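User: quick one, fold this
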Amino acid sequence: MLQVEKIKKSYHKLEVLKEVSFSLKHGEILSLAGESGCGKSTLLRIIAGLEHADQGGVHFNGIDITRVSPEKRRFGFVFQNLSLFPHLTVKENVFFGLKRAQRTTAKLNNILTMTGMTGYQDRYPHQLSGGQQQRIALARTLATDPELLLLDEPFSSLDPILKTKLRDEVFGLLRELRITTVLVSHQADDSFLIADQLAVMKEGQIVQSGSPSTIYQRPHSLYVADLFGASVVLDGVNKEGRASTAFGTLNLVDLPSRFKLLIRPENISVSDADDFTLCGRIRHKAFKGPHDLLTIQSNHGNATFSLETERSQYQVNDVIYLKVPPECVLIMG
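Assistant:
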């Protein structure tokens, strides 16, 4: 449905996008992820037609829309700052941009019902909470019956509890309506819970794409791994075909001479002295609700790593033994 092909964009001498390509099927939700300044929002604006690419193209339903004006693309765009008109009521904001014949009571009631804003049509934006304003921004976009929805950090200004509730409601609605969506988000939870596909960007390029589970379980780099959850990273050296670390030796294959090992915390279990992979001494213990956050130091040196575990009786200075299945260890060059 949406095909982005080798998009390049520079501002003066600063290259913001470097031959970015991806495709998206009808009804899918794609999340663009990456650090601030990596080009996510610029790419979204190019898809919307609000910016022009220096090179490359955008195709929608097989049609080249690279130079088509935004108003002719039938795309909906919800900005981070919402852009509601303060002097217009909810009803007038929702109807903004629609032709007179489209401004029916039935349409208004349907849109407000879908977004949970029934009864608010006569209020002004300043009379609404942040979450309610977000709903109206979405309602205004859905009123245009968009063929593609573009969301740029839509929940970033909300408090965590409200954000979670609204996010779940909004993306439940998008899935019900089967609206193809491209989302820019800094939050791993957003991407994991709502996206069919992830495209991870760094310095103007997509460095890895795939399903959320693939990105989490098989990141291609430490950069990608760090974006999507905690991980234990250990320096390793190839000693006679085995991975030697400051905390123990692992039986792994196809090892370079020096490398880093990446292990997700949920793949590490507490063991005993008779059956373990790694061991060290607890140097710090912090309370994290149902979990403990342990800082573990190697027995012979100053190497440390942090590990979140279930609540336990371990105390500072205790030796801890850990077990890691070899298939859960990723080798990073």
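User: anything notable?
Assistant: The chain has a mean pLDDT of 91.
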